[in-house]
């Protein structure tokens, strides 16, 4: 009986964070929508500045749960600048938690509100979030022949012209690496061999289109590119073999004790501009990631496993940066739900906000 209770409590650890994160979404959308209407006649930079601040508030609440609530230990390696910059962020992709890793780094540079994502097209249909991510500067892209280069360039140019701060997150692999999906890994390795590129073990072969378009469009606006390699400690089985990285629910259930994050800051002048050369450069960067992950997961020396080479910094996020956002958004949502009119508005926001958002992204995104 006691064991069953313990197991049940463990399984519902993620219920509170999920309830708050999803439950406050209509409140956030209402606040954003009000500002969108009020700023309609103002220059776009005013809208964007406040939108970035609102986004920072919501994502700070996200980090309250994913860092402070879980108690995960963040270990940083390499060279993360202390000050905010206009950057392209390139990372390996293995979990639904990966987009939060970008938040984890951005908040430590006071750039959390400036994070914008290149996202796969199917995510635009997410209720409320799908439309808002596009409004905040996210770019939805389709794979291969359906990739719309002109649309991506147009949107990036609009933000550059407005002087919008950019912390643009791209996952060049295009899909998550899962060691259990052997067909996906084999296809990726076969593609690399066909292209005459080295075959990779712990990452998928990166695709160049979105990265090249982003860099080519923003090269005069960027300060640097961040090459980020992430490993979740504990993502190995009893035989020491790598297994699937934790999902958001598993992460919130405190199943990941440490996240290891290696950052290489690359000055833009050291990145080739021509697409063929950049394709080789990007693959070389993923070869470096692969070597780091081979060391992390497969090193024959137990002392060298579960860490990246070099010194690490244990970076703890202060509650002062996250708790106020949690209190503000949860308090506003509770207040909204305390009245009948508020509850009706809340439900209508979920329903009509989703419908209008889906209609908007079907036309614009």
Q: Which key features would you list for this structure?
A:
single chain; 365 residues; alpha/beta; 8-stranded mixed β-sheet; 13 helices; 8 strands; 13% strand; disordered N terminus; transferase; acyltransferase activity
What does this structure look like?
This protein is α/β, with parallel strands linked by helices. It has one domain. It contains 13 helices and 8 strands. The chain has helices at residues 2-11, 15-23, 25-38, 44-69, 98-107, 129-136, 149-161, 182-194, 209-218, 248-252, 275-298, 323-337, 340-363, and strands at 73-78, 87-91, 115-120, 139-141, 167-170, 224-232, 258-267, 312-315. It has an 8-stranded mixed sheet with strand order 4-3-5-2-6-7-1-8, with helices on both faces. β3 (115-120), α6 (129-136) and β4 form a beta-alpha-beta unit. α3 runs antiparallel to α4, α6 crosses α13 (340-363) and α7 packs parallel to α9. It is globular and about 65 Å long. Residues 1-10 have low confidence and may be disordered.
In a nutshell, what does this entry contain?
The chain is built from 13 helices and 8 strands. The protein is an alpha/beta fold and 365 residues long.
Topology:
Elements: H1 2-11, H2 15-23, H3 25-38, H4 44-69, E1 73-78, E2 87-91, H5 98-107, E3 115-120, H6 129-136, E4 139-141, H7 149-161, E5 167-170, H8 182-194, H9 209-218, E6 224-232, H10 248-252, E7 258-267, H11 275-298, E8 312-315, H12 323-337, H13 340-363
Parallel strand pairs: 1-7, 2-5, 2-6, 3-4, 3-5
Antiparallel strand pairs: 1-8, 6-7
Helix pairs in contact: 3-4, 3-13, 4-5, 4-12, 6-13, 7-9
């Amino acid at each position: 009986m006691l064991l069953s209770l313990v197991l049940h409590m463990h399984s519902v650890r993620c219920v509170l964070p999920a309830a708050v994160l999803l439950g406050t979404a209509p409140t956030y959308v209402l606040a954003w929508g009000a500002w969108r209407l009020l700023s309609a006649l103002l220059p776009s930079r005013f809208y964007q500045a406040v939108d970035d601040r609102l986004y920072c508030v919501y994502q700070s609440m996200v980090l309250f749960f994913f860092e402070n609530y879980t108690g995960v230990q963040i270990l940083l390696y390499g060279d993360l600048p202390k000050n905010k910059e206009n950057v392209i962020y390139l990372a390996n992709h293995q979990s639904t938690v990966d987009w939060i890793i970008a938040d984890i780094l951005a908040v430590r540079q006071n750039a959390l509100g400036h994070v914008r994502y290149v996202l796969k097209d199917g995510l635009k249909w997410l209720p409320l979030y799908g439309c808002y991510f596009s409004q905040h500067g996210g770019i939805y892209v389709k794979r291969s022949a359906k990739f719309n280069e002109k649309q991506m360039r147009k949107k990036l140019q609009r933000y550059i012209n407005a002087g919008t701060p950019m912390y643009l997150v791209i996952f060049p692999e295009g899909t998550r690496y899962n060691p259990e999906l052997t067909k996906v890994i084999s296809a990726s390795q076969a593609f690399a061999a066909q292209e005459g590129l080295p075959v990779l073990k712990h990452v998928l072969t990166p695709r160049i289109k979105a990265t090249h378009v982003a860099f080519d469009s923003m090269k005069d606006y960027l300060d640097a590119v961040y090459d980020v390699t992430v490993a979740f400690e504990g993502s190995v089985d009893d035989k020491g073999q790598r297994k699937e990285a934790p999902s958001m629910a598993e992460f919130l259930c405190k199943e990941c004790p440490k996240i290891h994050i290696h950052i290489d800051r690359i000055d833009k002048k050291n990145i080739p501009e021509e697409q063929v050369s950049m394709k080789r450069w990007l693959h070389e960067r993923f070869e470096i990631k692969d070597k780091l992950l081979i060391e992390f997961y497969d090193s024959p020396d137990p002392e060298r496993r579960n860490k990246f080479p070099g010194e690490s910094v244990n970076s703890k996020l202060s509650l002062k940066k996250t708790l106020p956002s949690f209190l503000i958004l949860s308090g506003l949502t509770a207040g909204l739900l305390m009245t009948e009119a508020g509850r009706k508005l809340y439900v209508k926001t979920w329903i009509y906000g989703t419908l209008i958002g889906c209609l908007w992204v079907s036309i614009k995104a």
